[in-house]
Amino acid sequence: MTMRFRNLTPIRLRALLRRHGPEAMVWRRRIAILGGAIVIGLIALLFARLSDWAGMLFLQMARQWWWMPLVATPLGFASLVWLTRRMAPAASGSGIPQVIAASRDPERGMTALVSARTVIAKLMLTIGALLCGASVGREGPTVQIAASIMGYVHRWMAIPLRASVFIAGGAAGVAAAFNTPLAGVSFAIEELASAYEQRMTLLVMAAVLIAGMVSLGLAGDYVYFGVMRQTLGVSQALIAAPVAGVLGGMAGGLFARMMLGIATTAFAPIQWLRARPILLAGGCGMVIAILGTVTGLTWGTGYRTAHAVIAGADVPLWFGAAKFVSTLATAVSGLPGGIFAPSLSVGAGIGDMLRSIFPDYPPGAIVLLGMVAYFTGVVRAPLTAVIIISETTASRGLMMPLLASALVADFAGQLVCKERLYHGLSKRFALGPTGDPGARQEAG
């Protein structure tokens, strides 16, 4: 030991400090993960509060003046799409396709797809969409915002950007948005990373856990959709899970196919509307305004309706179909906003329909089967769907029936739509030679 210290010259000491000291790459990376995840948790909570406020404010105004949405929603849609195209074209749509596209070229992705300008516009315009009654969620935008935060923190710490940085940020965003850390990990594996690298495991796990702890510490240990303790017997699960998987998976696959198809179809009227995005947005807003005014149930995220259906409330049999149309119209309009929460709401409507097929089965459990099946059919991420549903309802006793329904739904959804939704949409955000995203973003 004495000889070792005796041979420690000033040059060797400086080399050791560069390699292992507080300025070493490994320490900078750890600080970036910690700081980025904390900021993601705080921003996700703020975004959630603002989104809830915007949705409630719109509902209050719609109840007070029933005719208001017929004017405000189409005009709001057209105005928001105009602002999106002028301010930040890469802010349109969910945000998850942008993160997938950015991870293919992280350095250039920071210039547009997850730039500060894009994500600030994303946050503000998504809140604006909820103020107009759009059927959008905040989860997809949170993923894009979180990936950007993680990217900027790494850049400020002079750490080279890799795909794993955006994947870790996006996963932390899911964890903070739903207060579901396990769902963040599974989402990173299934959706954001086409080839999950072993070396990014620590980065993803650390970011997800830290962001989840921030969310848990400030918002409390809440369960997103409320606690649901019902379970299914083995014989009941063997019958209900496949039926829910087929119906929900095919319905989710239909949504994905229509969303992808509308942006690429050669059908002349659709092409004409795509060439006039402001007119298309106003028309979609009018569809949503009419549906919402007539039904009173299709506005916003649909969280409250889904929560009520899980708790045992009845909704009209057409609710699932009406929410499906409202969400599709919002998605193809080009408005910033996600489809996570609205998809879970559509799934709750499908689950309510399944309750009439299985009247003697535990109703809440059947609704959850419909939710996990439809969500899987849309995003084709069965593990993420199961974990999100089980964590947001504390229904761990239903894990096996939920997984069976999700696996069947994944197969059924693939029969209807071969291409995975988010990966198909990410192609429209492919970076050009100048680093700008592609122009075909109408349905992104």
Could you please describe the fold and organization of this structure?
The model is unreliable at 1-5 and 439-444 (pLDDT under 50). Helix 16 packs antiparallel against helix 17. The chain has helices at residues 2-6, 10-20, 25-64, 68-87, 96-103, 106-109, 116-131, 139-156, 163-178, 181-192, 201-219, 234-262, 268-274, 277-295, 303-311, 319-332, 340-357, 363-379, 382-393, 399-416, 421-426. It is built from 21 helices and no strands. It has 444 residues and is an all-alpha fold. The relative contact order is 0.15. Helix content is 72%, strand content 0%. The longest helix is centred in the N-terminal third of the chain and has 40 residues, at 25-64. The radius of gyration is 23 Å and the shape is globular.
